[in-house]
Amino acid sequence: MTTSASVPTEPEDAIAAGTVTDRLVDANERYAAAFTDPGMDARPVQKVAVVACMDARLDLHRALGLDLGDCHTIRNAGGVVTDDVIRSLTISQRALGTRSVVLIHHTNCGMQSITEDFRHDLEMEVGQRPSWAVEAFLDADQDVRQSMQRVRTSPFLLATDDVRGFVFDVKTGLLREVDPS
User: Fold this and answer.
1) Taking the complete model, does pTM exceed 0.70, yes or no?
2) CA-CA distance, 109 to 15, in Å (whole number)?
3) How many CB atoms lie within 10 A of CB 105?
4) For residue 166, how far is the Cα from the chain centroid?
């Protein structure tokens, strides 16, 4: 198995019309034409940091009723609490005043369909071992519990009392809270 073989490529006619990045830049120009500075501070109004999966099906602001400026959003594959997430949460809390952490995994996550063999396969393909762990998991609830524990036991974080974890159902849009024990 090669890790790049499963990445879809764009059809030839899409390339002729411009790249995805070109379309994003064009959209930004339209956005900027009507943009007015909201006059916000970098500190989240709700003093909350949300850690979630990068899955494109999760529209976190809409799902949580959040507006621009309400939260810090930290996303990665699986929504797993890694060293880099702890880094971001530490900056979020210590420099920018957040005090609550919400962790969100979701149903039908791609991280449940791969294994740590992905890392080995990648090393075989490119000739270099990745410095990071895949952090694949089988049970979203258990991984949320592990993520909550990683946040609660980090010596770098100031606020670890209000840490809650959820699984977002991609079919219904509902959050289900995960019992930390």
Assistant:
1) yes
2) 29
3) 28
4) 13
Residues 6+ apart with CB under 8 A from 130: 119, 122, 123
Distances from the Cα of 127 to the Cα of 24, 57, 107, 131, 145, angstroms: 33, 33, 33, 13, 34
Residues 73, 61: Cα–Cα separation, whole Å: 9
Read off the tokens for 44: 């989240």
One-letter amino acid identity for 2? T
φ, ψ (nearest 5 deg) of residue 125: -70, -45
Query: pLDDT by residue (tens digit) across 124-180?
Result: 999 999 999 999 999 999 999 999 999 999 999 999 999 999 999 999 999 999 998
Strands 163-168, 175-177: parallel, antiparallel or unpaired by DSSP? antiparallel
Rounded to whole angstroms, the Cα distance separating 87 from 34 reads 34
- String of DSSP letters for the chain: --TTTTS----HHHHHT--HHHHHHHHHHHHHHT-------SS-TT-EEEEEE--TT--HHHHHT--TTSEEEEEEGGG---HHHHHHHHHHHHTT---EEEEEEETT-GGGT--THHHHHHHHHHSS--SS-----S-HHHHHHHHHHHHHT-TT-S--SSEEEEEE-TTT--EEEPP--
